[in-house]
């Protein structure tokens, strides 16, 4: 089988090499490696509970870019090395440990990113099961996988674990009221697209902030309330124009709080909630699209305290969040936004769309089979 891999940015060109590009002005090399089926490790005490999976498709998240930078920097010191990367996938089960009960050979599975699952025999099982989704074969723990049935295509199944589980957890924590006024930032981001879908299913019409013309048009066409801004400095004017002066939001869903929190706090109503799952500046190399604000932490906290605003951090979700999301997908109550689907032999366009295309609005999927 074949696997997508990150190759050293400065090493000699190897037979596996397929594509070079710049991301945030840094050089990256990608290649395709032949990966034989691994032999189970008999000494691994957790082996009995493990499942061997063969990937059918993967998709990219913002966190994968952050990890790519770490791996790329490591590879500068090992020019003959390589790294696999990625976290969302769909795979076929090709082997199971003696004590695996819930999954059988031939099942299709996706990651279960449950962040609250208890350790088993002292081993933590919190969070995302794989940071090497692009590796064709992988041994993973049974309870870090969710079996999915044929109702969901490979491209959809490969796109949902992180985004669906996180967005359902964020909405659960928001404890929405009937008339809650809701703002969602970064409308093109996958996390926000999942949040928007789910809010609409629940009967809410959120206001969506985006810097992308493409997303502005697409979401407006779908009947959403969308506010377009160009530079971060324009957000206040854009929101006031759209929203009036005295009409704030009860809930803000924000995947990039280092970018937006300071700008949006004045727009959060008394007793409002600000729910965030992430930051933009995850690596020093990431070029800031906008200059960070200069308000002190004390000023922001005072503002929050005086308005009784709750700031809620959220990492991933629980198993029920993912299962609820899958049920809603299967019944057609929500959909997954997929921007494009690529095959392994079309690597360049996949990499560009996943990591460099500013017009992207949805998941970018790479199919292995
Ligand atoms: N902790 C968790 O459990 C968890 C889970 C999922 C995601 N996250 C976090 O959530 C965030 C979003 O992840 P994702 O995979 O959904 O992202 P994504 O799909 O890659 O989002 C890309 C979009 O985000 C907006 N954006 C990116 N950089 C920006 C900047 N500097 N300034 C303003 N807007 C910017 C743009 O939206 P517009 O074009 O609409 O302006 C851009 O099109 C990341 O921080 C990620 O780590 C965390």
From TrEMBL:
Pfam families, sorted: ADH_N
Keywords: NADP, Oxidoreductase
Keyword Transcription regulation among record annotations: no
SMART domains: PKS_ER
Keyword Disulfide bond included in the entry's annotation: no
InterPro entries, sorted: ADH-like_N (IPR013154), ER (IPR020843), GroES-like_sf (IPR011032), NAD(P)-bd_dom_sf (IPR036291)
Residue ranges of every copy of the Enoyl reductase (ER) domain listed in the record: 31-366
PANTHER family attached to this UniProt entry: QUINONE OXIDOREDUCTASE PIG3, QUINONE OXIDOREDUCTASE PIG3-RELATED
Name of the protein in its database record: Zinc-binding dehydrogenase
Origin species: Pedobacter jeongneungensis
């Amino acid at each position: 089988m074949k696997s997508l891999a990150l190759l050293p940015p400065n090493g000699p060109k190897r037979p596996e090499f397929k594509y070079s590009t710049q991301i945030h002005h840094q050089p990256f090399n990608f290649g395709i490696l032949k990966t034989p089926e691994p032999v189970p490790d008999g000494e691994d005490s957790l082996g009995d509970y493990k499942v061997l999976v063969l990937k059918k498709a993967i998709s990219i998240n913002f966190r994968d870019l952050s990890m790519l930078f770490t791996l790329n920097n490591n590879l500068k010191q090992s020019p003959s090395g390589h790294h696999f990367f990625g976290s969302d996938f769909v795979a076929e089960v090709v082997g199971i440990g003696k004590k695996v009960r819930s999954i059988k050979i031939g099942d299709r599975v996706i990651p279960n990113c449950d962040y609250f699952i208890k350790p088993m025999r002292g081993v933590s099982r919190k969070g995302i099961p794989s940071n090497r989704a692009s590796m064709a074969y992988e041994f993973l723990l049974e309870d870090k996988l969710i079996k999915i049935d044929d109702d969901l295509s490979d491209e959809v199944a490969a796109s949902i674990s992180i985004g669906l589980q996180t967005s359902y957890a964020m909405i659960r924590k928001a404890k929405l009221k009937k008339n809650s006024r809701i703002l969602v930032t970064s409308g093109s981001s996958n996390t926000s697209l999942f949040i928007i879908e789910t809010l609409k299913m629940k009967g809410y019409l959120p206001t969506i902030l985006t810097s992308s013309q493409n997303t502005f048009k697409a979401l407006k066409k779908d009947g959403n309330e969308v506010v377009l801004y160009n530079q971060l400095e324009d957000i206040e004017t854009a929101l006031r124009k759209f929203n009036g002066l005295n009409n704030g939001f009860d809930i803000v869903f924000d995947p990039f709080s280092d970018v937006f929190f300071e700008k949006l706090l004045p727009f959060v109503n008394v007793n409002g909630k600000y729910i965030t799952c992430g930051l933009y500046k995850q690596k020093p190399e990431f070029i800031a699209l906008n200059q960070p604000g200069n308000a002190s932490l004390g000023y922001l906290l005072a503002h929050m305290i005086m308005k009784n605003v709750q700031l809620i951090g959220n990492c991933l979700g629980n198993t029920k969040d993912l299962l609820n999301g899958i049920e809603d997908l299967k019944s057609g109550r929500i959909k997954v936004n997929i921007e494009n689907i690529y095959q392994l032999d079309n690597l360049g366009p996949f990499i560009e769309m996943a990591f460099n295309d500013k017009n992207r609005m949805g998941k970018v999927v790479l199919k292995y089979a």
